[in-house]
Amino acid sequence: MTTKTIKPQFDRSRHGGLYDRGSADSYYGRGFTPHWWPEGTGFGQRIDQLNAAEIAEYKAGWDNNEEYGDKKEW
């Protein structure tokens, strides 16, 4: 039996992961700036140097909120 481990940045349930940050940036009306936080949003070092798969995961979160989500009312 093989267990596939999800890298932390691709875990969609993780606060600060790529998908989470993409959807949050869309929700709050921030620009499309792919990044993630390994220690949770706002903690530790923000990671901005991403490969194509990581950018695609951030974009998936962004696109999902753009299509189905809502926007923060200021």
Mean pLDDT metric: 94
The helix content is 25-40%
Output the helix-strand order. Answer: HH
Number of strands: 0
What oligomeric arrangement do these chains adopt? single chain
**Tally of separate domains:** 1
Number of H/I helices? 2
Tell me the structural class.
mainly alpha
Distance between the termini: 50 Å
Please tell me what the overall shape is: globular
Percent strand equals: under 5%
Regions with pLDDT < 50 over 5+ consecutive residues? none
Largest sheet: none
Cα radius of gyration in angstroms: 13 Å
Name the descriptors.
mainly alpha; 74 residues
Entry summary:
36% of the residues lie in helices and 0% in strands.
Characterise this structure.
By secondary structure, the chain is mostly helical. It has one domain (8-68). Helices cover 36% and strands 0% of the residues. The chain is built from two helices and no strands. The longest helix is centred in the C-terminal third of the chain and has 17 residues, at 52-68. The protein is globular and about 35 Å long. The N and C termini lie far apart (50 Å).
Write the SSE topology.
Blueprint: H1 18-27, H2 52-68
Helix pairs in contact: 1-2
